[in-house]
Q: What sequence folds into this?
């Protein structure tokens, strides 16, 4: 049929057009007749890639956690055993696990506290240009180089660095020294103390908390807050009974990232902090210098299990809608 | 008369849901055909079956005598005006309208000429350079119409095309669509849940419920002679009289429909009823009545005296207005 | 528009938000100062003087250039692979409802949801089991795997925003699947894909945790930096490299933001 004649002329063409021919035409017809064919064609490459390369490696690793290492020869014994998991409960290893989980928990709570005002301001008060600026202001630190960020903190926390200088200028050196004198969290300088490790963790993962909290707060209509005030609630009560419960899924979503990332990190505690190991460092050391792949594998199961429970709980709280 | 679209025993099931259930249907060429029903009644699925977006689970669909089981949408000379208009946001209006011609391989100058003509046809000349986002709802609706018509389809499908427009624009578009259809002589198949729209525009109406066609007929048929309680209730909010009551009047124990405007208030020899309320509708007033244990409505002209709430009145109607329905229960 | 838009924030909130933002940005700004310091033995603050000398020194360092070249190669190839796989996955998941949809989403997100060290050590042990020698391809294998999610998140968000009836409208107007893809789908998701690709590039260019396990003796720019961090040998050069890395990653991030700012958020939380 030709459509060159005016539109107003009555249509006289055939009701069914011939096939377009060519391989695209006939393949397209087959996709229409069998929509599953297209679906399978689309899914096969990514599923094969992720299934073989990622899941395959992961299961191979997990399988090795059920092997053990011969203490005398240092060779891996390929017999199924739970002996390696038993080793996790040695005091030294248990210590590592407790240290890492505590750090992850403290970092998560601190990140939530610091992130909330930023997210709240961005969601409720920032408009137009300011909103875009806030968004970029969170996105840039999130995406800029992880190593550079860690490096920047090595500069900041160094004994001769800017933080010491600021304390000196404010005549507060005594405060810094008193802090560093506290056992466990103190040390020779900030860059070799748990305080330093904590600060770097907090800094590096903070944007991961801001974004989901902001997303959750964006969904709270301003009228809720007005309604609460209208019904006689003080700002504090409004926060406790209206804003916080509605932002909670966002906080939980953000905490997934801060918690999981802290659990698995092995570079930050290596560069800033005391010489005591975190789970990530233990895994790294076991698979590298110690050559104990089974124990390294068993160690990786710890964050997987913890995150499994965490994600399960988060899902029940509806946190995934806020990501 | 040529049959444009015919369904024979067509069903479309989604898992356990029978969206379309054993439907027989025949739409003549040049007809303005409305599919009317509540949401989920299967009318939109029927439209999608004609367009080719869905395939029947069983049964056959023919378009101008050709079975279309194996014909994908892009080979059916049938075009659709979508409920959300589905204008391509990345193209300007002229390229939207010319899209079908571009796919056919028509040259740029030629297809833009045809698209401009189509835009004139829908009273939007000179809008070609704008983007869909810059147009109002009514204008977008016209563009969608032009984009479909420029391909000269044998059948034009319209899925609730006026649903998103405000009342005044709706009424204007109803008239325009009808005029356009008469002018072009294309078969229009129109899905709506608005009974007023179906009755005022269509040559014939099919009333859908639960995946089945309840009744097919002219608007007058559907409105004045509903064959089932559902149709009586859905189209024109007729009063449905109970079998016990109807038996006293006619001797037959069936449901019957009685249009509100057929009811008159009389001084004597009527049926005793009690006024339960009234609402002023502008041109008319609707009076709620209790007739025995039935609740019915009457429509009276606005200049008539509205009886007091709670008043005992007598009502009457011409026997021919009482329409017996087929489904006994 | 919300009515509270004109209301101004309490001072305490403003201050807390401002301090929070400053906390996120000042450390990065510090890098730019240190790149020009004359001090080359310690991290002394304030810098005793400023010089451009280290830019030239860094420019003439072949090891830095080699690492940069490797990083760019890896990031480019990984991004291309991730864009193909991520788009296919997003299209499949958002266009059709099928059994196992949730599983597919989980599979894509898993490499980023689990700590990077797990991905890294799993890949390394798999390479050793399968006897695969380390090469640029072992690095790419790892990078592409966790970059898929970034492209996927961006594409899924855009697919969700693109009305499903557009595809039907195109087919209704006579276009087959391939024509519909070319004329309707691609133009509509194009910017989201580009944004996803840029973020994937930034992610790969910067990645160190997985890379330490899959690189063997090869050195990407982050690996080069990590070695300097653990055993500082040439602090001034590290300072300059850090500044360059910030610049190289910031540009694609800003570009991605501008490509997707109308409507869907850059799926940054998927990093």
A:
């Amino acid at each position: 049929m030709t459509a060159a004649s005016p539109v107003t002329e009555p249509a006289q063409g055939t009701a069914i057009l011939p096939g377009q021919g060519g391989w695209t035409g006939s393949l397209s017809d087959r996709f229409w007749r069998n929509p599953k064919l297209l679906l399978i064609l689309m899914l096969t490459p990514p599923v094969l890639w992720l299934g073989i390369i990622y899941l395959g490696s992961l299961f191979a690793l997990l399988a090795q956690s059920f092997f053990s290492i011969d203490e005398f020869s240092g060779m891996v014994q390929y017999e199924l055993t739970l002996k390696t998991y038993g080793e996790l409960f040695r005091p030294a290893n248990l210590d590592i696990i407790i240290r890492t989980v505590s750090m992850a928990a403290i970092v998560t709570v601190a990140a939530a506290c610091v992130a909330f005002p930023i997210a709240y301001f961005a969601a409720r008060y920032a408009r137009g240009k300011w909103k875009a600026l806030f968004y970029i202001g969170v996105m840039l630190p999130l995406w800029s180089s992880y190593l550079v960020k860690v490096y920047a903190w090595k500069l900041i926390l160094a004994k001769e660095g800017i933080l010491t200088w600021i304390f000196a200028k404010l005549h507060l050196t005594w405060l810094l020294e008193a802090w560093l004198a506290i056992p466990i969290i103190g040390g020779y300088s900030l860059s070799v103390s748990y305080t330093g490790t904590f600060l770097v963790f907090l800094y590096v993962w903070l944007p991961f908390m801001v974004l989901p909290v902001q997303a959750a707060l964006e969904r709270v209509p301003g009228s809720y807050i007005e309604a609460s005030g209208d019904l006689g609630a003080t700002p504090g009560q409004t926060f406790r009974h209206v804003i916080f419960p509605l932002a909670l899924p966002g906080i939980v979503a953000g905490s997934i990232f801060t918690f999981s990332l802290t659990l698995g990190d092995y570079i930050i505690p290596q560069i800033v902090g005391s010489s005591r190991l975190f789970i990530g460092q233990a895994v790294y050391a076991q698979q590298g210098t110690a050559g104990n792949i089974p124990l390294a594998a068993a160690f990786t199961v710890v964050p997987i299990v913890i995150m499994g429970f965490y994600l399960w709980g988060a899902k029940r709280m509806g946190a995934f809608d806020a990501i | 008369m040529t049959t444009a679209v015919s369904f024979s025993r067509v069903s479309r099931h989604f898992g356990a849901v029978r969206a379309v259930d054993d439907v027989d249907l025949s739409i003549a060429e040049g007809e303005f055909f409305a599919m009317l029903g509540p949401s989920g009644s299967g009318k939109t699925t029927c439209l999608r079956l004609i367009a080719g977006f869905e395939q029947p689970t069983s049964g056959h669909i023919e378009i101008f005598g050709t079975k279309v089981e194996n014909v994908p949408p892009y080979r059916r000379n049938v075009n659709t005006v979508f409920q959300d208009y589905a204008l391509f946001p990345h193209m300007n209006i002229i390229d939207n309208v010319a899209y079908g011609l571009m796919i056919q391989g028509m040259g740029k100058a030629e297809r833009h000429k045809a698209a401009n003509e189509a835009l004139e046809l829908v009273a939007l000349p000179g809008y070609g350079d704008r983007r869909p986002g810059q147009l109002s709802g009514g204008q977008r609706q016209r563009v969608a119409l032009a984009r479909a018509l420029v391909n000269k389809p044998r059948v034009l499908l319209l899925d609730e095309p006026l649903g998103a427009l405000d009342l005044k624009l709706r009424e204007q578009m109803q008239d325009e669509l009808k005029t356009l259809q008469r002018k072009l002589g294309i078969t229009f198949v129109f899905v709506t849940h608005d009974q007023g729209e179906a009755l005022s525009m269509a040559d014939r109406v099919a009333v859908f419920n639960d995946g089945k066609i309840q009744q097919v007929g002219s608007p007058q048929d559907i409105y004045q002679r509903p064959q089932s309680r559902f149709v009586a209730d859905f189209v024109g909010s007729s009063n449905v009289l109970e079998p016990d009551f109807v038996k006293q009047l006619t001797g037959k124990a069936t449901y019957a429909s009685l249009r509100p405007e057929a009811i008159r208030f009389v001084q004597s020899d009527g049926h005793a009823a009690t006024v339960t309320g009234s609402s002023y509708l502008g041109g008319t007033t609707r009076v709620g009545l209790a007739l025995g244990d039935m609740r019915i409505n009457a429509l009276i002209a606005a200049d008539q005296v509205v009886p007091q709430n709670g008043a005992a009145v007598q009502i009457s109607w011409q026997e021919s207005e009482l329409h017996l329905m087929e489904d006994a229960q | 528009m919300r009515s509270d838009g004109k209301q101004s924030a309490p001072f305490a909130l403003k201050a807390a938000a401002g301090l929070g933002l400053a906390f996120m940005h000042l450390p990065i700004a510090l890098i730019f100062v240190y790149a020009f310091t004359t001090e080359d033995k310690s991290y002394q603050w304030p810098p005793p003087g400023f010089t451009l000398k280290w830019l030239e020194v860094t420019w003439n360092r072949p090891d830095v250039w080699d690492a940069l070249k490797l990083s760019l190669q890896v990031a480019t190839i990984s991004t291309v692979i991730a864009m193909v796989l991520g788009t296919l996955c997003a299209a499949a998941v958002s266009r059709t409802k099928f059994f196992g949809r949730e599983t597919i989403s989980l599979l894509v997100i898993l490499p980023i949801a689990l700590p990077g060290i797990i991905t890294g050590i799993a890949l390394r042990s798999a390479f050793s089991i399968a006897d695969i020698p380390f090469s640029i391809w072992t690095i790419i294998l790892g990078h592409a795997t966790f970059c898929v999610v970034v492209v996927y998140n961006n594409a899924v968000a855009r697919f969700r925003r693109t009305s499903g009836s557009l595809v039907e409208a195109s087919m209704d107007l006579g276009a087959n699947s391939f024509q519909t893809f070319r004329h309707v789908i691609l133009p509509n998701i194009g910017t989201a894909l580009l944004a996803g690709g840029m973020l994937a590039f930034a992610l790969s260019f910067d990645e160190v945790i997985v890379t330490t396990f899959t690189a063997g003796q090869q050195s990407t720019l982050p690996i080069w930096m990590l070695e300097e961090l653990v055993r500082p040998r040439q602090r001034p050069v590290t300072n300059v490299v850090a500044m360059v890395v910030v610049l190289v990653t910031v540009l694609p991030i800003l570009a991605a933001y501008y490509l997707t700012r109308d409507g869907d958020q850059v799926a940054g939380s998927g990093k």
User: Anything to note?
Assistant: Chain B has ten helices and 18 strands. The mean pLDDT of chain B is 89. The first strand of chain B starts at residue 3 and ends at 14. Residues 20 and 46 of chain B are 7 Å apart (CA to CA).
